[in-house]
Amino acid sequence: MRDRPVVLGIPYGVNVHLTVVHPRDLTEQEIGQWRALQEADPALDNPFLSPEFTLTVGELRDRVRVAVLHDGGQIVGFFPFERHAFGIGRPVAHGLTDAQGLVGVKDLELDPRWLVRQCGLDVFEFDHLVAGQALLAVRHETYPSPVIDLRAGHDAYTAHLRANSGKTYKTTLAKRRKLERDRGPLRHDFAIEDLAPLHTLLQWKTDQYRRTGRTDRFAHQWIVELVERLLAIRTDSFAGVLDMVYVDGTPMAGHFGLRTRTTLAGWFPAYDTAFAKFSPGLIHHLALAEQAAANGIELIDMGRGDKEYKDKLKNGELRVAEGRVVTPSVGAALHSLVRVPLRKTRATVMANPLLLRTADRALKTFGRLRTAL
Fold it and tell me: Matching CATH topology for 16-143+319-372 and 147-318?
């Protein structure tokens, strides 16, 4: 077994150059250095920034690339991205990930436009860029990403819920007791390896997408296969985590996410609507927090987005950024003509509670009509 690579504390940014490769062409030494750089900076402690995630997506998406940054003879960073048509770059598995960015040494100084040009891109878009990124030198907006912080322990977290979400917490526990009286005992399985419960969860999620008028991500076979492959990964620093709550042996609610040593990224929670009156999602999340803490998880990142359950369960938040890096080019100009008005319209809706509720109702109405067909 090789020793873990050491990140040297020397100044960077003077003679940085890069090479762009497909993830499958990274060497074991480079992958090890990626892990070392990630673990050296708490701001990068998210499984979506782990090499295993990019490597797995790269097995299914040929458009995935990694820029390997060098300063002299030493690797100082890794920038994973997808290269789309017309010189447009996006994060790996764009639209699915809740943490994006460059994994590199602290205080690495880069001109974002230089980086984008060197990657053969005209534009790089991002919507969940983590804090402390050189790419934040460009214009951007930041948004909260709610978290369940378990660093003080599970008991401290439940004490926070009692003090700040007391009604929700007590009501959820009461519904759990009623559920057990009416339907049978509850069981929570954590870190399940079987595919059958995963497929049950994905079907619930598909039903939810259709019910709420959203695009069904699992209509894309590569996303289903991605989740299946990630479930099979079990290392000390990265793993797919599937958990499920059962009522008298019947699956009721569950979640699939990814973890590092200490951070669990919330990804796909869902439940059987037959149990809806018992608030199965909240029952599940409380059970998940307890099991996660018992398994070394210190932070559950629930991801950017205004959801009522996140407001009720969170006891902290991170910040992620949305924006784009644009180079002076024809491709960038054409991209701006199309994307900027759409982005501004979306931002206006998201910032206005009335517009947001109206849009949400419209989507749900569409979802009800679609499921009725």
Answer: yes
For β-strands 239-247 and 250-259, DSSP reports them as antiparallel
Domain ranges of the chain: 16-143+319-372, 147-318
Rounded to whole angstroms, the Cα distance separating 46 from 307 reads: 21
174-201 pLDDT, tens digit per residue, is 999 999 999 999 999 999 999 999 999 9
Check whether 287 has a pLDDT greater than 50: yes
Q: With CA atoms as reference, report the closest residue to 143 among 322, 324, 339.
A: 322
Residue 227 CB burial class (10 angstroms; 0-12, 13-18, ≥19): buried
Q: Which residues of 171-206 are buried (b: 16+ CB within 10 A; e: fewer)?
A: ebeebbeebeeeeeebebbbebeeeebbeebbebbb
DSSP 182-209: HH--EEEE-S---HHHHHHHHHHHHHHH
- pLDDT value of residue 72: 85
Domain range 147-318, CATH class: alpha beta
Indicate the residue type of 348: T
Q: How is domain 16-143+319-372 classified at the CATH fold level?
A: Aminopeptidase (3.40.630)
Q: What is the C-alpha to C-alpha distance for residues 46 and 259, in angstroms, rounded to an integer? A: 7
**Confidence (pTM):** 0.86
